[in-house]
């Protein structure tokens, strides 16, 4: 063998050895992967094709005091189809019937769906879109279609479920019902979110294509647990009345915004709360929760608190005479003036409140507290004005009560201005809480929006009435104030809302708006004064006056001055409309019958109510055309159970007019 051949053979031997070593390394690596690291790589592979998909719980419902849904989680369904899963025999036998069902439900031609399914069959589409955003009933209908009814494995039926939050009563009380999402935690939804939330479940899904996942099983591995239902104190009948009464007045006076609150006297339960602000186009909607948030100078509604302090200190009585002079006085060159030109002369302290004399209340407080203003301020704070109510709902405005201890802000007119409701700041709900205490024999209770929590119909927690101040004043003082407030309606500034049908008590308020100091683009300062063009009109009170069951406050900001701006003209009529409708809707038949002879004094839309209730109590009335809430009141007072769909006026009723009434029968109203 030649030297050259030996060299070639030697090199071949080296190559063989190297190849052998390489193959040995490969086999070792394969064995290592298969036997030692197999589980690891199998997990990686499986994790790329199988995943645990979260199933979110249904958030608990927010429910009215009478059981109507205010906020609820509605299930929505997206339907898809794994066309590959369906056998050739099943597909061919049922494709026409499936296309026919699809055409009947979704409106496209039968041939369109045949082509749609066959094309998906040819392209082996395992995630074909059938429908989006279906409600539960439509989902069940589609699920029953030919092929789909065979389920996931034989029929290729794929369901994707999600939940959305909806308000069945629309925009009414939207800010109070609230939300808990990217916008923050607002209203009842935000305040009670820990109870409304539940726990998530999960379901295994397998990847069938890029970004497409299909459930492995028909059932969930872990079922989600829904949140608790929050039962509110809101009565949608009263809410509807308050909302529309306020809206009508805001539109009439072209105001900027306003609010109404109705509270149950003994419990503090908020039965209605409406907040409406005007858009640039002149329409009104629930812009902000003004009732809870907006702290402003109350004006004359605060005079009652001033008189309460003086009565409790026994420095005056309601019969104490004060000289209002000619309706105008000056304090440190600042004018205090009555709305009645020429003044009221010498009148009693009680009459000061009745006619809302600014001069009268200022002189009374100045005379007895000028030497010790801190005594007056301390008494105001002891009532409960100096601190927040401590509401669960976020965003309560902070009250402001000035004090002589604050040298920077207290001045020579602070006491006198405070006496008639200026230089202080309160929210409408804080003011109402005070008036409610007068109606409640001096017991100040905390406003309450939620009464209890329930899970699957069982009560989990009850929220009891909380007392903020067990005694804002003696019973003697409270009785005197209640009588004075009743006279405000009978013979004072609010005689325009007086009616002999039922008694009301309250106080009007008309406050000038303070224009804050601002700097314009040229650096010049503007504002720093009380405007003679911009006002806040209000009325706070309770009804019935002799045995108060409800308290109510109405506040309207910036009404058109040309159309009216006094509390009696702008705010008090809203109070009356709410009070009379609630009075007429009360399920005490004798009360309605007693007031029947006076029915012409009520609003026109209540005349039909009385006629129905008194003349047709044996048969079903025709409530078509009535507002939904009035129709519900009529029918419930006749002993019927009422279900309704939609908002607005009654379009259809499920039981015909003239049908004999059977107590407990359910009638369904369609509203539009």
Question: What brief labels describe this structure?
Answer:
elongated, six-stranded antiparallel beta sheet, 672 residues, single chain
Class by helix and strand content? alpha+beta
Q: Count every helix, treating DSSP H or I runs of 4 or more residues as helices.
A: 23
Give the oligomeric state.
Answer: single chain
Low-confidence stretches: 587-616
From the alpha-carbon coordinates, what is the Rg to the nearest angstrom? 36 Å
**Strand element count:** 29
Distance between the termini: 109 Å
- Shape call: elongated
The description of the largest β-sheet is: 7 strands, mixed
Helix amount, in percent? 25-40%
Report mean pLDDT, rounded to a whole number: 85
Strand content: 15-25%
Write the layout of secondary structure elements.
Layout (H helix, E strand, L loop, with lengths): L2 H34 L1 H12 E6 L6 E2 L5 E13 L6 H19 L3 H13 L5 E7 L1 H8 L7 H5 L1 E10 L7 H4 L1 E3 L2 E3 H5 L1 H4 L4 E9 L2 E4 L13 E4 L3 H17 L4 E8 L5 E9 L5 E2 L4 H4 L9 H10 L8 E3 L4 E4 L2 E4 L8 E3 H7 L2 H12 L3 H11 L30 H6 L8 H12 L4 E2 L4 E6 L2 E5 L4 E3 L5 H17 L13 E11 L2 E2 L5 E2 L2 E15 L6 E8 L9 H4 L1 H14 L3 H7 L8 H12 L12 H10 L3 E5 L4 E4 L12 E6 L1
Parallel strand pairs: 2-10, 27-29
Antiparallel strand pairs: 1-8, 2-3, 3-4, 3-5, 6-7, 8-9, 10-19, 11-12, 11-26, 12-13, 14-17, 15-16, 18-21, 19-20, 22-25, 23-24, 25-26, 28-29
Helix pairs in contact: 3-4, 10-20, 10-23, 12-14, 13-18, 22-23
Mind explaining what this structure looks like?
The protein is 37% helix and 24% strand. The strands form 9 sheets. Strands 2, 3, 4, 5, 10, 19 and 20 form a 7-stranded mixed sheet that branches. A 6-stranded antiparallel sheet has the order 13-12-11-26-25-22, with helices on both faces. Helix 3 packs antiparallel against helix 4 and helix 10 (236-252) packs antiparallel against helix 23 (628-637).
């Amino acid at each position: 063998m030649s030297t050259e051949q030996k060299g070639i053979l030697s090199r071949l031997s080296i190559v063989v050895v190297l190849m052998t070593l390489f193959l040995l390394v490969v086999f070792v690596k394969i064995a290592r992967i298969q036997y030692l690291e197999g589980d690891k790589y199998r997990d990686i592979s499986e994790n790329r094709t199988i995943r645990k998909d979260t199933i979110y719980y249904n958030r608990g419902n927010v429910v009215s005091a009478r059981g109507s849904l205010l906020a609820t989680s509605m299930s929505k369904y997206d339907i898809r189809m794994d066309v590959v899963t369906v056998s050739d025999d099943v597909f061919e036998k049922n494709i026409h019937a499936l296309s026919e069902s699809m055409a009947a439900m979704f409106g496209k031609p039968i041939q369109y769906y045949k082509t749609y399914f066959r094309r998906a069959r040819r392209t082996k589409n395992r995630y074909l879109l059938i429908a989006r955003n279906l409600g539960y009933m439509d989902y069940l209908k589609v699920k029953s279609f030919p092929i789909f009814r065979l389920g996931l494995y034989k029929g290729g039926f794929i369901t994707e479920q999600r939940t959305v939050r909806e308000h069945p009563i629309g925009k009414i009380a939207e800010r109070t019902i609230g939300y808990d999402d990217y916008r923050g935690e607002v209203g009842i939804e935000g305040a009670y979110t820990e109870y409304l939330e539940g726990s998530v479940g999960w379901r295994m899904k397998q990847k069938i294509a890029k970004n497409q996942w299909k459930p492995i099983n028909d059932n969930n591995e872990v079922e989600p647990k829904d949140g608790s239902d929050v039962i509110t104190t809101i009565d949608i009948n009263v809410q509807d009345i308050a909302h529309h009464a306020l809206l009508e007045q805001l539109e009439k006076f072209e105001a900027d915004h306003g609010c109404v609150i109705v509270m149950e006297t003994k419990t503090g339960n908020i039965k209605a709360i409406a907040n409406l602000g005007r858009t640039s186009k002149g329409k009104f909607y629930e812009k902000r929760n003004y009732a809870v948030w907006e702290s402003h100078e109350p004006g004359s509604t605060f005079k009652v608190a001033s008189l309460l302090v003086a009565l409790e200190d026994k420095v005056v009585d309601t019969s104490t005479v004060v000289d209002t002079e000619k309706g105008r006085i000056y304090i440190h060159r600042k004018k205090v003036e009555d709305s009645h030109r020429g003044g009221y002369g010498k009148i009693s302290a009680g009459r000061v409140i009745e006619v809302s004399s600014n001069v009268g209340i200022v002189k009374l407080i100045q005379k007895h507290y000028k030497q010790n203003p801190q005594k007056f301020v301390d008494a105001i704070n002891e009532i409960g004005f100096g601190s927040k109510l401590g509401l669960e709902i976020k965003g309560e405005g902070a009250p402001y009560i000035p004090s002589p201890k604050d040298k920077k802000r207290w001045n020579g007119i602070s006491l006198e201005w405070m006496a008639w409701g200026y230089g202080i700041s309160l929210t409408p709900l804080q003011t109402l809480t005070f008036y409610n205490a007068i109606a409640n024999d001096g017991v100040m209770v905390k406003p309450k929006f939620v009464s209890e929590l329930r899970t699957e119909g069982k009560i989990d927690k009850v929220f009891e009435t909380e007392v903020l101040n067990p005694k804002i004043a003696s019973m003697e003082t409270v009785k005197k104030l209640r009588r004075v407030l009743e006279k405000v309606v009978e013979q004072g500034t609010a005689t325009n809302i007086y009616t002999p049908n039922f008694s009301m008590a309250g106080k009007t308020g008309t406050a000038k708006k303070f224009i804050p100091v601002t700097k314009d683009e040229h650096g010049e300062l503007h504002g720093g004064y009380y405007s003679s063009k911009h006002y806040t009109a209000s009325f706070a009170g309770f009804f019935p006056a002799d045995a108060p069951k409800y308290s109510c406050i109405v506040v309207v900001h910036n009404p058109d001055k040309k159309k009216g701006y006094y509390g009696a003209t702008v705010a008090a009529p809203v109070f009356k409309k709410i009070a009379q409708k609630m009075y007429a809707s009360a399920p005490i038949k004798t009360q309605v019958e007693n007031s029947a002879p006076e029915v012409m004094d009520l609003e026109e839309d209540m005349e039909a109510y009385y006629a129905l209730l008194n003349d047709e109590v044996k048969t079903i009335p025709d409530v078509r055309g009535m507002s939904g809430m009035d129709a519900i009141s009529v029918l419930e007072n006749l002993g019927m159970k009422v279900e309704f769909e939609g908002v607005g006026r009654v379009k259809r009723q499920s039981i015909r007019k003239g049908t004999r009434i059977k107590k407990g029968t359910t009638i369904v109203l369609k509203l539009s």
